[in-house]
Model the fold of this input.
Amino acid sequence: MSEQNKFYQMYKKELEGITPCELEEIEELAEALAMGDESVRNRLIEGNLERVIQMAESYAESGLPFSDLVQEGNMALTMAVYEYEGGGFLPFIQERIIQAMEAAIEEQKGEASIGQKMAAYINVMNEVTSRLAEELGREATVEEVAEKMQLPVEEVKELMKTALNAIHH
Done:
């Protein structure tokens, strides 16, 4: 059973005790909330948790763990319920949930590309270091590597730290 399936089964079991909100109930609760009745917030949040799961399923192939999608969606749902002031409740929360899930997916893609760039820089640094060692007949200094890579010495030091940390972890 995959991580997604385990999480899904466990989470569904937790939700068994919570009855999802039907459309009519959502409309009544949203109207009450818009008129200032804050006691309905928890029911609106709990009653729409199932909806978050359904929405997360459409992003299951995004590369982001399903549990992260659900967590982002649940946070967005909660925030949306607290920010709701009237109008179409379902479109409002659905838009917020989608925005949160898509933002999390984009953030993860950005982190992956930063990691790829860092790896590429480290590979270049290793190549330059090897070449300089051959040319000089000794280990190159950080300053010599930085000059050859046309990078500030501090950046090369950071690359070296990152490379060392990657080896040790």
Summary: DSSP finds eight helices and no strands in the chain.
